[in-house]
Amino acid sequence: MKPTSLLLALLPLLLLLPLAAHAAPDWNGELRAHAEQPLENARGPLAQAHRLAPGTAPTPRGSLALEAGLRTQTAYFGADLYWRQERFEGTTHGHDARVNELFTGGDAPLLGEGAAWSAGKKVVAWDVGYGFRPNDVVAQEPRRLLLPLRPEGRPLLQAEQFTADGAWTLVWANPQQLHARAEDSRRGAESALALRAYRREGAADGYGFARWGARTQGSVGASVAWVAGEAVELHASARWMHRHDGLAAGPQGGGLGSANPWREATLGAASQWLVGATWTNAEQLSLLAELWHDGTAPPDTAWSAWAARNAALSALGASAALPGPLRPAVAGNLAWQATPWTSATSLRRDNLLLRLTWKHEAWEPVLELLATPRDRGRSLTAALGWQGDRWRFEGGLRRSGGPDGAVLAQLPVRQVSYLAATLAF
């Protein structure tokens, strides 16, 4: 890396450290160092592409990263600053510096008692699920990350009011994107109005949601969380939408294409739902079970066509009659078949999640299984964390597999292991 580039990468951290040293008591932050080591999969279209023509697409590489964050929030101001420096195997470097949150706000007496307003870049995360959240219509943050990340907020204007047993929140997200092009307003950047209403009835919390997007138009949803007893909690969520962002596939025959057949598009109506339960005993042993359906994921017919095209391209690549100059073209077509993995919230529409955790003094072991019943794919995660007053250490392993036809079994990364150390200040 050039010295000027390195200086620009380090500049955010150099600004953060003096602030942390002389900050008021309401400032806090963290430093985290972590390493990830992926293992490339020998199955799937991307692996076949690499065998035909090595270097067709980037291969998974191990990485070392250093992150720093500094945040504060008062009744009238909030900020969250983030910096990251990363080094990949092969001496490739990357860096990122951004403002996750920067907003102001205050009371709004014109809206009634207990009302408030805020404006700026802010995280507004909704819904009750763990593995999947149909009604997280503002933040739209990724779920089930190996390491928790401080989410990046959305530019917004917000009004809300709280009462003794209820609340409502109105958000105009991404107002600067109101007249943006379709390709610039996908994946959480669409200008939209979102409304959440909350009501508490005894041990149950109920929520209603409505959203109107400049391009995807209307959606409505509801969710509930109920503490059914000292050890059991139940939750559910559902959403219906008039349009949604997704992937549209072009012709899926066995011939070679000159362009990626997958493209982002605005698609038709879809529904999402989740049901879940949590059981926790007195020893802090906890079991979470969730089942969800994501109608925005590719349907079974799309995956069947995807598998058929993979087989046809694989057969073409293995043919002795294939001219050598065409091998890179076949490899490129196979590499394009990995596109759905980078865009979909859920790969398959139906998913089952089981998560077992145990908090014992400073230790917290975790065992998690994600299964896709349609094709019997699975992703298993095992992790162990230790939490002190200021330090946290954690590490784990995530491994995907299943039958050869399972989508999870064909991911570019078969398994990834990680270690992390975090210092809070």
Q: Could you list some keywords that capture this structure?
A:
globular; 20 strands; mainly beta; 18-stranded antiparallel β-barrel; Alginate export domain-containing protein; single chain; 14% helix; 425 residues; two-stranded antiparallel ribbon; 48% strand; signal; Porin
Description of the molecule:
The protein is mainly β and 425 residues long. The chain has a single domain (3-180, 192-424), classed as Porin (Beta Barrel). The chain is built from 5 helices and 20 strands. It has helices spanning 3-21, 45-52, 300-318, 327-336, 339-343; strands spanning 27-40, 63-73, 77-88, 92-107, 115-122, 154-162, 166-173, 192-201, 204-213, 217-227, 232-241, 244-249, 262-267, 270-280, 285-294, 350-358, 363-372, 377-387, 391-401, 413-424. β6 (154-162) and β7 form a beta hairpin. It is globular and about 80 Å long. 28% of the residues are buried. Mean pLDDT is 89; it is low at 1-23.
